Amino acid sequence: MKQIKFITVLLLFATMVFNITACSSDNEDGTKEDNSIIGKWKVMGEGHTDTYEIIEYKSNGTFEYFYTKDSYSETGKYKIESDKLYLIWDEDDVQDWDIYKIHELNSISLIIEGYDIKGNLKGYNESFQRIK
């Protein structure tokens, strides 16, 4: 009887391990999907038909916004907590965080929606496409 319990527990454990590893973030081709915000993103969507606006999120919690048409850039800090992206610009006189709800973040796209001063969502999304 002890041996049957041991085999049952062993099979249950093996099934759990198999299910956990089968649910990882591997793509069908065996590559890992990068759901990290770190990298360069091009601003997309209505009103952004050119590729002049790029934002790069770095692993040290900083970002740099580039407007390549005029060789203009700004820097700041960012953090992600749950489904929110917080940005604070270095050049701002007022050190308030801009807050965005992350609707989508995967290896190729980032879609966010800003909050207004009262804490309500603004009602329009900002889309980005990963370029690096």
Automatic annotation (TrEMBL):
<keyword id="KW-0732">Signal</keyword>
<protein>
    <recommendedName>
        <fullName>Lipocalin-like domain-containing protein</fullName>
    </recommendedName>
</protein>
<feature type="signal peptide">
    <location>
        <begin position="1"/>
        <end position="22"/>
    </location>
</feature>
